[in-house]
Amino acid sequence: MKNNGKKELTDIASLGEFGLIDHLTKGIKHHHPETIKGVGDDAAVIDNGPHATIITKDLLVEGVHFDMVYTPLKHLGYKAVAVNLSDIYAMNAQPRQLLVGIAVSQRYSLEGLEELYAGMRLACERYKIDMVGGDTTTSTGGLFLSITAIGHAEKEQVVYRSGAKPNDLLFVSGDLGGAYCGQLVLQREKQAYKANPDVQPDISKYSYVIERQLKPEPRRDIIQLLGQKGIRPTSMIDISDGLASEILHICKNSGTGATIYEEKIPLDQRMAQTAHEFNIDPTTCALSGGEDYELLFTISQDDYDKIKDNSLVHPIGHISGADQGHNLFTSSGQLVKLTAQGWDPIKGK
Amino acid sequence: MKNNGKKELTDIASLGEFGLIDHLTKGIKHHHPETIKGVGDDAAVIDNGPHATIITKDLLVEGVHFDMVYTPLKHLGYKAVAVNLSDIYAMNAQPRQLLVGIAVSQRYSLEGLEELYAGMRLACERYKIDMVGGDTTTSTGGLFLSITAIGHAEKEQVVYRSGAKPNDLLFVSGDLGGAYCGQLVLQREKQAYKANPDVQPDISKYSYVIERQLKPEPRRDIIQLLGQKGIRPTSMIDISDGLASEILHICKNSGTGATIYEEKIPLDQRMAQTAHEFNIDPTTCALSGGEDYELLFTISQDDYDKIKDNSLVHPIGHISGADQGHNLFTSSGQLVKLTAQGWDPIKGK
Predict the structure, then answer these.
(1) CA-nearest residue of chain A to B135?
(2) ipTM greater than 0.85
């Protein structure tokens, strides 16, 4: 395509986040044998002799990942650490160290940064993480956080997205959709505040979903549970983009299909009430909402008896051959196709 | 201090970059014995049995660290990688892996990001670095780069800022002040371009200093040289903020003083000419200019004969007891006090 004799440039948004990363990292070659896993999982994995070092990095950008109107800086610091730890746990590894990069504009005060650090330090204290370095610099607009988390695992215990096999069972921890509903409430209150700053809204009835949004907890307890039960998941991923998207990641990396059951998806009643208030189907929140930071994993059927009665994790379906596709059995008995946006009706199936 | 009944907030800039980091990371405790070195050096160091893993992180922010008017995206990508590798070499370690975080606004095209990645991949190819992961996201304004580099070293070979001892010799690689002069030229040309976009300036006579600014090379060759000669520096740091500031870092961390000689500071003739053109003392550029990414290190006098004839490195002074302070002998025979901004006249000494 030409435009006034100049080559027309391609809009980044047209590729989507995953398409963009795939495009930019295509054909990257590794030089070192200790690089076990590069781009394409929750974290990179480096061989260190008897064990492996696991490294992940996440950016949080003001106006994109958080809104300073309703995000207390201490919560933001806590969450920035939590989401990186979640990536390490999703590799079945233990996070141990953290590096913090902050670019901050002049409108932030020292006291504001102290709050941010207090939140990060609280998360580090709770999850026993050593804050070992980083970089602090000026930004021309807004606040940018870049966290790198470093973890540790026995090499053969590391779990990738790529190990799921047909007939494996799909499990998810906790409950889903809450973080998205929390964001809906916070955005609504922001609009109400802008319209009339004198009204103090009562948001106490939404405290569960708001906490899911502002202060997620990475699921160290699930990794401990799996270890205690002697279960090594065949694949695992953390739920940052919504259940549907994460299932598709596991299937793509493992070369499989999957079927899940709507009635098995764990939903909290408080989330469902909020979703109904916003005229959204609670299942849609779970499938597409994102930011729940629960763990999605697959296990061999042989391991089922070991955790079938545990209340922390829930079987939601199973892995199939790739030719079976990605399906959701709805509560009303329909078979629909799972997509990254939630689901599509399937015709003629 | 009070202001309308509200507590007055502290301006971040009032602490300076190093003061701010010190303040925010004060009292951080480590939980894990393998965390050998945390905040306060070029990189963090983690014990991995027979060897150590070295990790560093740098942010580059549009409008702060680079100006898109005169920074080609490919050069920017190359430099973003180079400055992180420089931190790893400054620990006497070999960089091996890299994680890339990019937050980018809608005004960047896919082709622009491809250029940026081409520069990063070129640096990775040249220095044999595996690009193993990262995060790409939207920003509300401008381009933010966050690079994490991971290196490897035999544990006892790692060099910190803290090991300098009185009578050790101070060495510096390459020549200094060029990157700063390159920036002066680029900023002048930007103003000229804004005043009259039709004039094509001839900047070929400044190509050396411009290259020093836009495309620094991390000094892998110096680390190789030291290894070949069997020299383990007693302390080392890379020169990102100017020679004076880096000498003070080594002295502060080692609990020493230092004296350097102006006539020994390596200056390139092309840098000196540019500095004179801007009515700046070339020595000031070297002491305070920054961004040269050369290595500053100290060695025991016993090692002097091993590298005294090598043209890559230059002795510029020596370490002394802390009570001797930080001094510069000027070419005119004056003894002046070295400060992070360059130097101050010393009275009565």
Answers:
(1) A58
(2) yes
